[in-house]
Amino acid sequence: MTKRSVLDWGATQFIRVGGVFVVIAVVLIFLYLLYKVVPLFSNINVEATSPHQISQSHTDTIPPIYSGIDEYSSILYSVNKSGNISYYDLRGGKNPPSDALLPSHLSSSDIIAHSLITQLPFDHYAIATKDEEGGKAFVVTHQYAISYPNNTRIITPEIMYPWGEKTLPINSNTQKIALREDDDRVIVATAFEQSITLYEYTKEQSLLDDEMSFELEREEILSVNHSIDFLLINFDLRWVIALSRNGEKTFFPLYKSNIANHKQEVVGKNSKITQAKWLIGELSILVGTDKGEIEQWFPIREQGREKYQKIRTFKLSKHPITTVAGERLRKGFVATDNQGNAGVFYTSSENHLNTQKVVDKALIQTIVSPQDDEILFLDKDFQWHHWKVDNPHPEGNFKQIWQKIHYENYSEPKYLWQSSAANQDFEPKFSLTPLLFGTIKGAFYAMLFAIPLAILGAIYTAFFMSKRMRQYVKPTVEVMEALPTVILGFLAGLWMAPFVEKNLMLLFLMLFALPLGILLFGFLSSKLPKPTSAFSLQNRFITIIPLVFALTAICYIIADPVQNLFFDGDVRLYITQELGITYNQRNALVVGFAMGFAVIPTIFSITEDAIYSVPKHLVNGSLAMGASPWQTLIGVVIPTASPAIFSAVMIGLGRAVGETMIVLMATGNTPVMELNIFEGMRTLSANIAVEMPESEVDSSHFRILFLAALVLFMFTFVFNTVAESIRLKLKKKYAEL
Amino acid sequence: MPSLKQTEQTRSWSQWKKNGEHWVWVNASAVAICLIMVIGLIGLIVVRGLGHFWVNDVQQIQLQNGTLWLGEQIDTEKSITNDAKQKSKTQILYKVGNREEYSLDFKWFDGEQIKNTTKPEWVAVIERYEWGNAYGKITNLHWQGKTYGINEPQALDNALQAVQNIREKIHTIEKNDIGRTNYQLNEIRLERKKIKADNSLNEIQKNKFYAQLYHKEKKISAHYQEIKKELDKHHKKLEEQGYVTFVLSDNKSKQINLGHIVRVYFPNQMDVVDRTLFYFEKLWEFIIEDPREANTEGGIFPAIFGTVALVMLMTLFVTPLGIITAIYLREYTRQGLIVRIIRISVNNLAGVPSIVYGVFGLGFFVYFMGGSIDELFYSFNLPSPTFGSPNMLWASLTLTLLTLPVVIVSTEEGLNRIPRAIREGSLALGSTKFEVLWRIIIPMISPSIMTGIILAIARAAGEVAPLMLVGVVKLAPDLVIDGNAPFIHLDRQFMHLGFHIFDVGFQSPNIEAAQPLVYATAALLIFIILLLNITTIIIRNNLREKYKALE
C-alpha cells in the first residue's frame, strides 16, 4: 500500500467515526437525562441482614416497653417494664453496661405510662410513675456521647433528665400519658378510663443554676365517651387526640379557649384501631387498623373550623397492624402486621414502596434509624431483625409528578410546585403539572401572536413581493432570530411590561383599529380612478408602514377619551376592580408578545421558503386559467405548501416551549394554573434555570429538574421529528412535480 | 414569482372581497408590522443604549415650596389616576444623584410642583468610585495642602491628573503583583496537598519537599509583604491628596476626597464638540474598564473578554466536528437510513431547548466528567473541586453541542453547491477521495464553513440560559487568560455579556440606575451579533454569485 492510500483509508475511518458523533450526542443527551431520572421511580432496595440474637441473654429486658437507636445505628437500647435499660452493640462490639431509667430518688416507683416526645436530636420520653406519694411525670433523654480515642469512634449511651430532679405531680390513676413542652410551657395529658386530665404548667429556668421551676397554670378534665387507648398531643400544642381500640376518635383543639366545647368526635366504623402515631410534623396521625390498613388523618379547615379528616388509606395486608413508625426526616413510614409483614410507604404521593415478610411471627416493635436508612423490627419472641434500606426518593412516583395531591395544610388536592421553604419540616411539593401548564400557556399566547403575523407575512413576501424587495425584507425578518433572547426578555420585563400596563387601552384599540383601518384603506384605494404603484400588490406593504403609524397615533389620541367614557378612566383598574381579574405586570400577554417575536422568524423563514419553492408551472397554469393571484394562492400554492407550513408551526412551537430567558424575565415565575392572559406563570425551562444551580446533587429535587429537562427534550424531539419528516416528504413531492 | 399586475379596477366591496384583495392587504400588513417591530426594537435599544453616554444638561429645579434640586431629566410620564374626573398629571423623573444623601439616585417630581427650571453654568457633576454621581457647586479645592478657588480650573485638572496617576499605580500593583503572588501562594498550597496525598513518597521525602515549599512560600510571603507595604503607601497618598468642597442644591456643604473622584465635568458649559469628545471617552471607558458598584457603573470589559474567550474556545471544538459530520453526510455515505438518522439528530440538536443543554452540561460535563478528572488528577485537592465545578471548559463544550447543527447545515449547503463534475474530474485524474476532499473541496467550501462558524459564534454569544448552569458568574475576579503560567485557566468561571444583561437588569438592587448600562450592554451585544450576521449574508451572496459563474 502506498502512503496515499493509507492516508485515504485513515481519513475515511476518521470521518466515519466523526460523522456519527451527532447521533451519539443526541442519544447521549437523552440517555444521560434518563439515567438521572430513573432512580426517582425505581423500587427501593431492602437488604435484610441476619437477625440479632440479642434478647435471649438479657431476659430481664423482656418485655421491652420501648426501644431506640443512635444516630449511627450502632447502639440499640431497650427499656423494660421495671425500668432497666439494656444496650446492644449492633456492630458486634461489646455491649455497653445496663442502666436504670428511673433516677435514684424514684427508683422504688413503678412506671405506669410512657410516651415518645421527640426524637430530635435524641429520643425524649415522657415517663409517668407512681409511688406512695402519688403520680409523677418527668422527661428522660436517651443521649449518646461520642468520643474518638485512637481515631475510632466510641459511642457511649447515657440517660439524662432535662428537668433535673424535678417531677410534675399527676393523677396516680394514669393509664396513658402524653407530654409536650415549648420554651415556656409544659402540657401534660393523662388518661384514665374515659377521662383526660390536662395540666398546663409554665416553665422557668433559673439563670443561676439551670434549676427548672414549674407552676401549674390550669388543670382541666376532658371527658370522652370511649375508652382511651391512644393519647397524643402535637408539638405546637394545638391538638390533643384520644382514640379507642374500637375505632372511636376524639379531637380536642388545644388552641381554642374552650377546649371541651370544640371537640370533634368520630365514631368508629367497622375496623378497630390497633396503633396510632404522629407523622413527622405532627399534624397528621397514622392510624393502624385490624384490617391491615393504615389511615392518614389531618385537619382541614371547613367553614372556619379545623376538623380532622381521613385523607388516605394505605393497605399493608389483611392482618392487624401491629406497629407504625414514621420516618425521621421525611413524610414516609414503616408499618408491620401480626404475620411478620413489613411495608414501607410514603404518605403524600401514596407511594407503596415495598412489602416484604420479615419473619413468620408477629412484629411488636419497629425502629427507624435517624438517617431513615435502617429499620429494626422486634418479633414477639424478642428477636431483632434488621433491614438496610436504600430509599433516597420515597416520594417519586407518577402521582407525585403529574397528579393532584392532598398535602397537609391544604383543604383539597392540588397541583403544587414548591421546592423549598424556610422552615425545616417543610415538605417539598414537586408537581410538574403547573409548570407544564405554564409552558403550554406561554407557548399558546406566543403562537397566537406569532402564527398569523409570520404565516401571512411569509405568504406576502414569497408570493406578492418583488424579488428586489424580498432580497432585503427576508433577511431583515430573519435577523430577528439572531437577536439574543436575553435582550428580548429584558425589554419585555423592564420596558414592555410597564408600557403595556400603562397603555392597555391603546393595545385593545389597535387590535381592532389596525385590521379594520388597513382594510378600509385598501378598499378605498381600489376606488381610485387610476392604479397607483404605491397600492400595487408588490408595493403596498411599504404604504402600510406609515399607515400603521398613523393608526397608532389615532388610537393613542382616542385611548384616553375612550377609557374615560367606558372604563371609568383606566382599563387597567377596571379589569381588576370591576371585572375582578387579577393583573400582574409581568404576564402572559407580555410573554406572548416577546416570545411571539422570537418565534416569528422561525415560522416565517420556513413558510416563506416553502411557498417560494412551489413549482412555478403550477402557479402559471392557474393564472393562465384566469384565477386571480389570491385565488391561485389559496387554490394551488397553499395546499401544496401546507405540510411545510405545518412543520414550520411545529418547529416554532418547539422553540416557544423551550424558550427560557424571555419567560424567566417577563413573567413573575409563580407556578399558578390560570389561563388568564393577565397573570404570569412559571415554565419548565425557567424553573430549571432558577432552581438548578441551588439544588443539591442527586437529591429528589435535582432529579425532578432533570425530569423537567427530559420532558422538554421529548416534547421538542417529537415536534422536530414530525416536522422534519413532513418536510422531507414534501421535498420529494416537489421533486416529482 | 411571475410578475403580478394589479387586478383590474373593482368597484364594489363584494367584488373586491371575491378577488381576495382584503387578504392581500392583511398579508401585506403582516409584513409591515414585522418590519416595524424588528427595526423599532433594534432602534429602541440602540437609541437608549448609546444615548446613555451623551452628556445631558443638568437642570436646577425650583419647586413651588421654594426647595431647589439639581438633576438630569430622564423621563416624563402621565401618571395613572384613580379618579376619572381628575386631570391626568405629568410626572418627571430626574436623576438627582448624591445617593448618600437622598438614598436613591432618582426622584419623581409632579409637573405642577415645579415652578421653574434653569440651567446654571456652575453646575458640576462629580463621578465617584462609590455612591454614584454628585451634582452641585464646587466652591474650592484643597490639594496637597494648598487651597484653590473656583477661578483656577487648571488646579483641579492637575489634581485629578495626579490622583489618576496614583490610581493607575495602585491598579498595576493590585492586578499584576498581588495577583501573581496570590496565584503563586495558591499553587504552593496545592503542591503541599499533592505531596500529602502522594503515597509513593515516604515521610522523609515528604518532609524534604515540605521544607522546600516552606522556603519558597516564605520568600513569596516576604515579597508579598513588600508589595503590600508599597500598596498601602500609595493608598495613603491617595487619601491624603486633598478634597473638593462641594455645595449641594440644598446648600449643604460637603467635602469629597479627591481619591474617590473618577472625573469632574461641567455639563452646562460644554458645547457640542466637547460633548462629542466626552461621549467617545465614556464609550471607550465602557468597553475597556472593569465594572464598579455592583456592576451598575463603569465598564464591561470582563464580560466582553469572557464572551470572546468562550466563543473562541467553542469555535475550536465545533469547527472540526461540524465539518467532519457534514462531509460524512455528503461525501462518505449514500442516502439511506443512516443519513436519515443523522439528519433527524442534527435537526433535534438544533431544536432542543438550550436550557436542556445546560442541564446536560451540568450533569454530564461538570459533575460526571469534571468529577472524574478531579478524582484522577486532582484528588489531592478534594473535596474542593478543580474541574468538577462549572467553568469555562464545560461551558464551551456545552455551547459546542448547541451550535454544532449550525456549522453542519452551513457546511452541507456549501458541499451541495459544488458541481459533481469537479469531484469526478479530479477522481478521474487519479486522486484519492481524501485528496479531492482536502485539496479541492475544502478550499472551495471554506466560505461556507466560515459562514457556519460565524453563525455559530453569533448564536453562542447571545445564549445565556445554559451558561447560567455551567459556568457564568456575575462577577469574576480573575480573567480566564492572565499572566500566570499556564496563562490559560479553563477551570475558572467567567462573565458574559448576555448574563450581564440578565443579572444587572433583574438582580441588581438599584435597577433604575443600572438600566441605562443594561441598554448599553444590549446595544453592544446586538451590534456584535448583527455585524456577524450581516457578514454571513454578504459571504453567502458572494458565494451564490461565484457558483453561478461555475455552472
Characterization of this structure:
Chain A has 737 residues and is α+β, with helices and mostly antiparallel strands. Among the domains of chain A are: 60-170, no CATH class; 433-736, MetI-like fold. Chain A has 15 helices and 31 strands. In chain A, the strands form 8 sheets. In chain A, strands 6, 7, 8, 9 and 10 form a 5-stranded antiparallel beta sheet that branches. In chain A, helix 10 crosses helix 12 (629-658) and helix 14 (684-691) crosses helix 15 (700-736). The radius of gyration of chain A is 36 Å and the shape is elongated. Chain A starts with a helix and ends with a helix. With 551 residues, chain B is an alpha+beta fold. Among the domains of chain B are: 20-51; 145-240; 301-550, MetI-like (MetI-like fold, Orthogonal Bundle). Chain B contains 15 helices and 13 strands. In chain B, strands 6, 7, 8, 9, 10 and 11 form a 6-stranded antiparallel beta sheet that branches. Chain B has a 5-stranded antiparallel beta sheet with strand order 4-3-2-1-5, with no helix packed on it. In chain B, strands 12-13 form a two-stranded antiparallel ribbon. In chain B, strand 9 (242-247) and strand 10 form a beta hairpin. The two termini of chain B are 23 Å apart. Residues 1-7 of chain B have low confidence and may be disordered. At the A-B interface, helix 1, helix 2, helix 4, helix 5 and helix 6 of A face helix 2, helix 7, helix 8, helix 9 and helix 10 of B.
